[in-house]
Each structure stands twice: as C-alpha cells, then as structure tokens.
Amino acid sequence: xxxxxxxxxxxxxxGESEKWQSVEQxxxxxxxxxxxHEIRTPIFESFEVFSxxxxxxxxxxxxxxxxxxxxxxxxxxxxxxxxxxVVRAYVENKLYGPEIQKPFxxxxxxxxxxYERPQAGRLREFHQIGVxxxxxxxxxxxxxxxxxAVELLHSxxxxxxxxxxxxxxxxxxxxxxxxxxxxxxxPLTAQLSADSxxxxxxxxxxxxxxxxQQDQExxxxxxxxxxxxxxxxxxxxEGVKELLTALEIPFEVDTSMVRGLDYYNHTIFELMSNSxxxxxxxxxxxxxxxxxxxxxxxxxxxxxxxxxxLGVERLLLILxxxxxxxxxxxxxxxxxxxxGAATNVETLKLVQSLRTAGFNxxxxxxxxKPKGQFKAASRLGAHFTLTLGEEELAQKEVNLKExxxxxxxxxxLGAVYTKFAELIKQLRA
Length: 429
Known about the structure:
Blueprint: H1 17-33, E1 37-38, E2 44-46, H2 47-54, H3 59-64, E3 67-69, E4 75-78, H4 83-92, E5 104-113, E6 125-134, H5 139-155, E7 161-167, H6 171-185, H7 194-202, H8 205-208, H9 213-219, H10 231-246, E8 252-253, E9 265-273, E10 283-290, H11 294-297, E11 305-311, H12 312-321, E12 334-339, H13 344-356, E13 361-363, H14 370-379, E14 384-389, H15 390-395, E15 397-402, E16 408-412, H16 413-418, H17 420-428
Parallel strand pairs: 1-5, 7-8, 12-13, 12-14
Antiparallel strand pairs: 2-4, 3-4, 5-6, 6-11, 7-9, 9-10, 10-11, 14-15, 15-16
C-alpha cells in the first residue's frame, strides 16, 4: 500500500521549512516591538466556541468545519480560525482582570482546518499568523493593528499592496442596515442562489459575501451600510480614516466588503496583493477587524477587541512569485575535515565543542576521502574548515581555512576549544 498525505495538506520539508521560520521570525520580531506576546491555544475546541461566534449561517459552520464527537460524546471541532479560541482563553483565564494592562495584546501562530476544495494558497490544513488586542474601543488601536500588518508585509519585501477598508457599524447601525437590505433583496429572491435565499432573513449580510456571480450583480446595486451608520459609528470610522491618513498609509473604502465571520463590527479591513501568483488579480493576504461583543458571547465581561489573521501559505506563494528571497538562517560556520581513522574521536569532540560555543558545525560521517569532505563543505556553504589529519593530531595542531578567500593558517588544537572566535580574527588579520 502506498501511503500519501491527506488531500488538502502538505509536507513542509527541509529547504522549505526555513522559509516558514523566516516569516515566523519576522513576525515575532515585529510583534515584540509593538508589545504583543504569544498565546498558544488547543488545536481543537468545543464545537460551540466556533458555531456560536462565527455564525450559524457562515460557510465555516455550515460547510467547512471538521467536527466530531470524541469518546466522551463531547462535540469537538478542529479550529477553523484563530480568534474564537483566543477569546475563549482570554475569558477562561480572566485576562481581563484589573491587574492586566489594557490593551491586552497577544499573537498566535499555527495550523487551522477547513474542509473546502483545495487550491493554490487555500488548503484544508492551513496556517495562520494572527494578533488580537482587547480592552480598548478606540480608533487609534484599529489603526495600530493595520499599521502593524502593513509593516509586516513590507518587511518581508512586498511593495504593491492595497488596504481595503470598511465599517459594519454598531448594533443599531447593523439593525437599520439589515432592514434596508432585506427590503432591497426580497423582491429579487427568486434570482438569488439557494444559499443566499436561505440566508436572506437569517443573516442578509451573508448575501453580500456570496461568490455566486448572479448574487454579486444583485449585491452591486444594494444599499450601502455607510448610509445607515449611527453618529457614534460614523465618528469611529472617520477617526480611523483620519489616523490612517496621518500615518500616510493609503487605503480604499470598499463598501461591499463584509468578511466571512459574523462576529465583526465597526472597522474591517483586508490587505491585498495583485501578485502574478494569483493571475495579477487583487488577492487577500491578511484580513481582520473589530469584534466588540465577542468576549461577552463567550461568557466574559463587556470587552472590545480587534485583530487580524494572515495566511502563511498564500504569503509564501506571493513571495516566491515576486522573486523575493527570504533569509533562511541555515548557514554553516565550520566544517571539520578528518583525515584518517585515528582522527574520528577528536573531530567529533571538535564539532561538539564548536556547537556548544554557539557555532553551526558539521563533520563527515561517511568515511569520505579528503576531497569528498571538502566538496561537502563547499556544497553546504561552510565559511571555514578545520582540517585534522593523523600528523596534525600528533602535533596537536589543526588547519583553519576561510573558504571564500582561501586563506589558511595552522593553529593550536587546544585553542579551537577555548577561543575559536579569536582564531577567526587572527586568520582575517
């Protein structure tokens, strides 16, 4: 029997995994500057954590969740997105307490799962990097989160980006808009797709997110939520636009954007790229928004929140299509060449000592001749070689060579163990 990975998953093998590490490290470095700290939540949660927050009519709940009953007859789901699990952890661990600094800022990285048709940049097991910030209902925090997302993508080398912006308003705004949207769509019910007909009265905003072409043509002429905002919601949105302008972050208001999860309100945004990876069409790389009310849904106190999620697979496809080389951090500092069986123990001791001292070091394990070992050192991109033969071992000396320049000196064997960094300076002097 031939075993293969499940459909919609991929193996991230050496040579590729370094690219993932590079993206993750860039995110960690940036998030640290913004004072976001990592949180790690379970890969599976109670089904209700997501069905209650994502919306019973959303595609995630109705079509895409991997859910099952465990041996204790508990209804479990593999997490389809990151926010709801973080909110559950925020509530359960009482991270809203008076001793906690506001806003509470956190980030996560890891796999998510959705049962959908696999395609480029969209797998059944996919990976997200996301941030969440709780406790502040202020346009300044909205803009900080968007600025951080923009800076992250720029730091990775992406230049041609578009920030699409919209608002879903507060509860009163949404109620007024919902009524106007139903009044517009009801006479057109027969022309809507089956999914949109089902959602029309349950959650008409879901119709705006339909991928059906006929639905999209109908939606294009629908009322705009901007015309139904309360003064408070309007002021919040104006504040966001004003602050983005102050930071010289260009944006476009897209009134048709609603996002795919029901918990969003007020500010929502998408960062898009028109990379040739997706045929030169504007494709979302990173998206998020404000979700005031979500903490209360999961049993916590009234707490505003905002965040974003970034798809790592999609980002890597774009970086590759744009020819952007990520720093892989897999350079080899030293390759130890051993000549003769008598040097085996000492070369092993040298390699281990160099690693302990903080150098990336490697040696031969296949009993190759010196020429083969030097070829291996060159292929691995070693900066230096240490060559130890039986004669050098007897004299307690070793040859240190810089591969790029070809410069070589003989150094005391004991000095390699105690002051290798100084030997490198001596070689380069």
